[in-house]
Automatic annotation (TrEMBL):
SMART domains: AAA. Its EC number is 3.6.3.-. Residues 360-595 form the ABC transporter domain. This is Lipid A export ATP-binding/permease protein MsbA. Residues 45-326 form the ABC transmembrane type-1 domain. The gene is msbA. It comes from Candidatus Promineifilum breve. It is a multi-pass membrane protein.
Length: 601
């Protein structure tokens, strides 16, 4: 099944440079229709079948009228037979067209919902790291799952019911005018009352629904955080505390859901009461007209049935209106996410970065996050092709931020960064990041097999290439000897089934398979035991060979052989040179850090 996401997305997604503020329900509904528009053929089939099915349903009161005024009054069995056979044919065709319209509308609705879910996930992949620093994982997962699930019901079956009720109301109202226009005018008097009631309660339902979705996001986030940190929870014996915290969030959801339920519970009964009072008035007035001889009994019965056919859909629509308002609230949350512009964008004339030698130059680079406090200030240096550049300094000095600027996880607020003379902002992101490999301190593995995690470095790699990368990373032996299913062994969520050293070596194999020209190592061995560190360090040395490498290290023993060392403090490079030359300045920061770590007086 091929979705038409590209054309629809361009029509429905706003320009990132000027994202609209999506607040009004009508505005949100128009954007939702933008997702349905590519499937207009299915919608056309659904609407045509729905009109036919609904109109066939309007035949029943006329059949009852004929039964009362002709077959029953005249005792005509032939009329009874004709009416019965005709009614049976109507029911058969109505069922057929109902099936067609439900399948066609469900097809369009489900495809549109799938497009929304894909769009939200795609946009999440496009957003910069700064966005994720401000958001919690559980909240984002909730928007992709809970919010879209709420839309799913409204854009499929609820939409079917709504359209059917609208057609029924229009058709029944036309027949009411035909039967007795004076009685119909009486009904029209209550329409403004019903409309105002629905609008008044609908806005409150939408607000209450947003609160429910926010509470669901809090629950998802709490469950995700606690599950990921279960070892910490158990080590501190904080199970009661986490249960209490989760229970509080669940009760917040309960109270928000009950508030929405109370408002929802008021809507349909109020509309139903107004409709019932109207029907009672019609019964009294119509009955007096029958007694006076101005209206036949069959006409009154048909009129009352049509009145019920108008009143009942109005009550159903009142309930649906509440559900649609809840869906509008969920849509606002989704569109708020889709309207979030990506801070890292390609220039219109961005060109692919050619295969580079690996010269990286920082020229007067400055950077800060959302505040005006500088994280990097006037940073300048040159890394020549194939050099090993070490970054050392106290925590918070800006080391990780500096290397994150190279693959454009963030953009500097001042200065420029070039690779082989190419400004990183002038080339495409894909071509830039394809030539940069990263091995972080906290190894990230995806659920799946060992094979799949190594192959992630280069999806088109052959089996032989993957195994060769594992050998170079000192991972092949433990994979084939210690893992039950070898390369097909499932690593578990976040690689939980493997040791830290094993996870790190698989991450190194992934980087080796990618074969980047520039390599970034962020404390890649800091959390390993001595034996694992030796194996990982050997693999890293093999990986760094012939590449421009940036190594962040707190343990200076790992960078003694670096070609060039950048000593950072408070966002600035305060010293730079080789290990030997930096030690010549006993009052320098590097010498102090070195003496402290090796306990040299």
């Amino acid at each position: 099944m091929r979705f038409r996401r590209i054309a629809r997305r361009q029509a429905a997604k706003p320009d990132d440079a000027n994202p609209p503020i999506t607040r009004g329900g009508l505005s949100v509904f128009r954007r939702l229709l933008g997702y349905v528009r590519p499937y207009w053929r299915w919608m056309t089939v659904a609407v045509v079948a729905l009109i036919i099915s609904s109109l066939l349903g309007l035949v029943l009161p006329l059949v009852v009228r004929n039964l009362v005024d002709f077959a029953f009054v005249n005792d005509d069995v032939a009329d009874l037979n004709r009416v019965t056979l005709g009614l049976l044919a109507v029911f058969i065709f109505q069922s057929l067209f109902t099936f067609i319209q439900q399948m066609a509308l469900a097809n369009a609705g489900e495809r549109a919902v799938a497009d929304i879910r894909i769009d939200v996930f795609t946009h999440l992949q496009e957003l910069p790291l700064s966005f994720y620093a401000e958001r919690r994982t559980g909240e984002l997962v909730s928007r992709v799952t809970n919010d879209v699930a709420l839309l799913q019901q409204s854009m499929t079956w609820n939409l079917v019911i709504l359209l059917r009720q609208i057609i029924t109301i229009i058709g029944a109202a036309a027949l009411l005018f035909w039967l007795d226009w004076r009685l119909t005018l009486l009904i029209l008097l209550v329409v403004p009352v019903i409309t105002l009631t629905m609008v008044w309660l609908g806005g409150r339902i939408r607000d209450a629904s947003v609160a429910v979705q926010d509470s669901l996001a809090e629950i998802a986030n709490s469950a995700e955080e606690t599950t990921r940190g279960v070892r910490i929870v158990k080590s501190f014996a904080r199970e009661p505390y986490e249960i209490g915290r989760f229970t509080t969030r669940v009760m917040d959801l309960y109270h928000a859901a009950m508030r929405r339920a109370r408002i929802n519970a008021m809507l349909a009964p109020l509309i139903g009461l107004i409709a019932s009072i109207t029907i009672t008035g019609i019964l009294y007035y119509g009955g007096s007209q029958v007694i006076a001889g101005n209206l036949s009994p069959g006409d009154l019965i048909a009129y009352l049935i049509y009145t019920v056919m108008v009143a009942s859909p109005i009550a159903i629509m009142a309930d649906l209106y509440g559900q649609f308002q809840a869906a509008i609230g969920a849509s606002q949350r989704l569109f708020e996410l889709l309207d979030r512009p990506s801070e890292i964008v390609e220039q219109p004339d961005a060109r692919p970065l050619p295969l580079v030698a690996g010269e990286v130059v920082f020229q007067d680079v400055g950077f800060h996050y959302t505040t005006a406090i500088d994280v990097l200030d006037d940073v300048s240096f040159r890394a020549r092709p194939g050099q090993l550049i070490a970054l050392v300094g106290p925590s918070g000095a800006g080391k990780s931020t500096l290397v994150n600027l190279i693959p454009r996880f963030y953009d500097p607020v001042g200065g420029r960064i070039t690779i082989d003379g190419n400004d990183v902002r002038a080339v495409t992101l894909k071509s830039l990041r394809e030539q940069i490999g990263i091995v972080p301190q906290e190894t990230i593995l995806f659920s799946g097999s060992v094979y799949d995690n190594i192959r992630y470095g280069r999806l088109e790699a052959t089996r032989a290439e993957i195994e060769a990368a594992a050998m170079a990373a000192n991972a092949h032996t433990f994979i084939v000897e210690d893992l039950e299913h070898g390369y097909e062994t499932a690593v578990g969520e976040h690689g939980v089934k493997l040791s830290g050293g094993q996870r790190q070596r698989i991450a190194i194999a992934r980087a080796i398979l990618k074969d980047p020209r520039i390599l970034i190592l962020d404390e890649a061995t800091s959390s390993l035991d001595s034996e694992s560190e030796s194996l990982v360090q050997d693999a890293l040395e093999r990986l760094m060979r012939g590449r421009t490498s940036f190594v962040i290290a707190h343990r200076l023993s790992t960078v003694l052989n670096a070609d060039w060392i950048l000593v950072m403090n408070k966002g600035r490079i305060v010293e730079q040179g080789t290990h030997a030359t930096l030690l010549l300045n006993p009052d320098g920061l590097y010498a102090r850090l070195y003496n402290r770590q090796f306990a040299i007086a």
